[in-house]
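Researcher: I've been going back and forth with a colleague about how Acyl-[acyl-carrier-protein] hydrolase might be arranged in three dimensions. Neither of us has a model we trust, so I'd like an independent prediction. The organism is Gossypium hirsutum, in case that matters for your notes. Sequence below.
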Amino acid sequence: MAAAFSCPVFFPSTFSYNGNRYHGRIKIKINATSSTKVKTLNEIAGAGKGSSSLATSTEINHLSQEQIRQRIPTKKQLVDPYRQGLIIERGVGYRQTVVVRSYEVGPYKTATLESLLNLFQETALNHVWMSGLLSNGFGATHGMVRNNLIWVVSRMQVQVDHYPIWGEVLEIDTWVGASGKNGMRRDWLIRSQATGITYARATSTWVMMNEKTRRLSKMPEEVRDEISPWFIDKRAINEDVPEKIVKLDDNARYVNSDLKPKRSDLDMNHHVNNVKYVRWMLEVIDKALPSIYINSLKFHINLKIITTSFFLQTIPDKFLESHQLSGIVLEYRRECGSSDRVQSLCQPDEDETLTNGVEQSLLKNMVLTPRIMEGNGYLGPLDVKSYGYTHLLQIKGDSKNEEIVRGRTRWRKTLSTLPYSS
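Model: Here is an independent structure prediction for Acyl-[acyl-carrier-protein] hydrolase. You can compare it with whatever you and your colleague have in mind.
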């Protein structure tokens, strides 16, 4: 009886394009028995002609250097070994396994809010990548590129129950569904691979914009035909009636008018990335903190200077250790470019006056925000379980201001222990 065996064989591969040489290797797995006739390399290469999935020299001549380097699939892929991704949900959803890296966490070794938002964006793009529909745009399909269309997010909601820790292995699921006649919904779930517990969930609504005119566009039928087979009737967040976000004005408690986009803030669609918007929204209150302390002394002459210094040094740590950002809702109104001047406004849900001492007012109304983006989103009042803030980013114009995004944030006391699945 012949013995069976399996042996992987690697062959070096080199080809030239536009004067540049590209190197790689080809892996061939040989399954055979001891009685199998061994063929020469030339015979093996000849047998593969016409049936090999590798690009021929003719196909390579039609590829750009960018396409060669990116290796964008032209057909649906079920597994992506490079990104640790695979297709799920009966062939239309996507799951990616990621490890929380050191540059994605803050001082408490927990993932930052900014890192979670970036993971949402990355997995969404990788989902389109695996579908075989990705063209050369920022998540745009072939039909979208032919119609000069790009995706823009119109609304996003994130709920965070627990923040992942450094080195933790996560599974991120994402899928898409219909949103009205011309929109698309995309949802996400983040859970711990070790415990199976869901840490965060998010939902978003996307519409199309003409890349040249920068105006919103209806969804062409050819694009609908591309993406509709991927739609799932499933929601990560059940929201019967979307929360209405009121528009703030110049009377908002916290205002920062010193914001200017940098080139590094722009994405591949040449507008400010939505993650940057969140950072601007959360940074506004920090610039107001010194004036809050100083002005409060005018109403409390008996308050010792040393007491104020104590609060300046210890309140931030207490906030960070005891509270966390638990939810955010964003409503996008227009895009922001590199030449725009941006103003950030923020208003607490309760605006209590200083009547019972500066300690009570500061603990209820003051927020330290940049640290949110730098570690775990910890923040909030020390004496209440939940607290909310309304936000607005707007472009400062000579005659009028134009809204960029409205937002709502919720904060709550940090859970002392992390539950484990039974």
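Researcher: What would you highlight for our discussion?
Model: I'd start with this: The chain has eleven helices and 15 strands. After that, consider the following. Confidence is low (pLDDT under 50) at residues 38-56, 288-317, 352-374, 376-384.
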